[in-house]
Amino acid sequence: MNQHKGNLLTDHPELYEARFPDPERLAGRWAEDCLRRHGAGPAVLDLGCGTGRDAAYLHRAGRRVTAADLSATMLAHARLHHPGPVHVQADLSRFDFGRGAFDAVVCLDSSLLYCHTNEQLDGFLTSCRRTLVPGGLLIAEMRNGAYFLGRAEPPATPGTALFTWEGTTYRSTTTLYLDRAAQLLRRTRRWTADDGTPPVEERSAWRLLLPQELRHFLTVHGFEVLALHDGPGPRTEPVWRPGAEPGSAADGDRLHLVARKTTALASVHPPVGERP
């Protein structure tokens, strides 16, 4: 079996869009709703933009959008099929677009969770703070660590998906493993296709952040949390619809974040009289 070093869907963006269709552009509409609800300015950075569908929606909504991704293949697809935004290659754990360049940073589809270590997460938030104007917004949507770490194990039975693109049927079998020590949800995905190509096995992982842990990181980096909830959102059941109010719970499969850059970094040291 081939041990694929990348990600089949990332390396073939057309397959990604076939496997995860979003004909209603729910992710982009949800992000635009958050931007409007909290009064964000027009300049938006979409980090981990993937195929570029969400960035293009924000562009059509009247935003000045820069779409950033680490994958040159994804960016090439976005430029061709979802034009409008400026597309640039960047690592979300360390990027620099200039100080105060954007009114909002948007990070959807668990892209933030590819920051596997505290150092990478610190780098992401430091970079976000630098690139945002005072009062700028950070909007993110991701898997929820509380959902997975609060349960015995992920599903023991591998999940299977089947879809067809350009006459070829693809089948993926996904197995999840909970690495508690590293707080990672590790994923092994095996791909087969009916066109005679050899099977492909690939491995990836997401950082599992607890809601209170995420609040702490944000506070330390000078952000005020305006909303942190498990739904509704673009990938929840039921899905988000225009006019839906954010929930108050944070223990479901997805986590949705809106945070605002404050004027100063927070102090994490307790008052002198309370120190041990």
Descriptive account of the structure:
It is a single chain. The chain has 276 residues and is of the alpha/beta class. The chain has two domains: 14-145 and 209-274, Vaccinia Virus protein VP39 (Rossmann fold, 3-Layer(aba) Sandwich), CATH 3.40.50.150; 149-206, Single Sheet (S-adenosyl-L-methionine-dependent methyltransferases), CATH 2.20.130. Helix content is 25%, strand content 32%. The protein contains eight helices and twelve strands. The protein has helices at 8-11, 13-19, 26-37, 53-60, 72-81, 118-131, 145-149, 211-220; strands at 2-3, 43-47, 64-69, 86-89, 102-107, 132-143, 159-165, 168-179, 184-193, 200-207, 223-229, 254-261. The strands form two sheets. A seven-stranded mixed beta sheet has the order 4-3-2-5-6-12-11, sandwiched between helices. Strands 1-10-9-8-7 form a five-stranded mixed beta sheet. Helix 5 (72-81) links the parallel strand 3 (64-69) and strand 4 (86-89). Helix 3 (26-37) crosses helix 4. The longest helix has 14 residues, at 118-131. The radius of gyration is 19 Å and the shape is globular. It starts with a strand and ends in a 15-residue tail after the last strand. The model is unreliable at 269-276 (pLDDT under 50). Residues 44-136 form the Methyltransferase domain. GO terms for molecular function: 2-polyprenyl-6-hydroxyphenol methylase activity; 3-demethylubiquinol 3-O-methyltransferase activity. This is Class I SAM-dependent methyltransferase. Pfam families: Methyltransf_25. It comes from Streptomyces argenteolus.
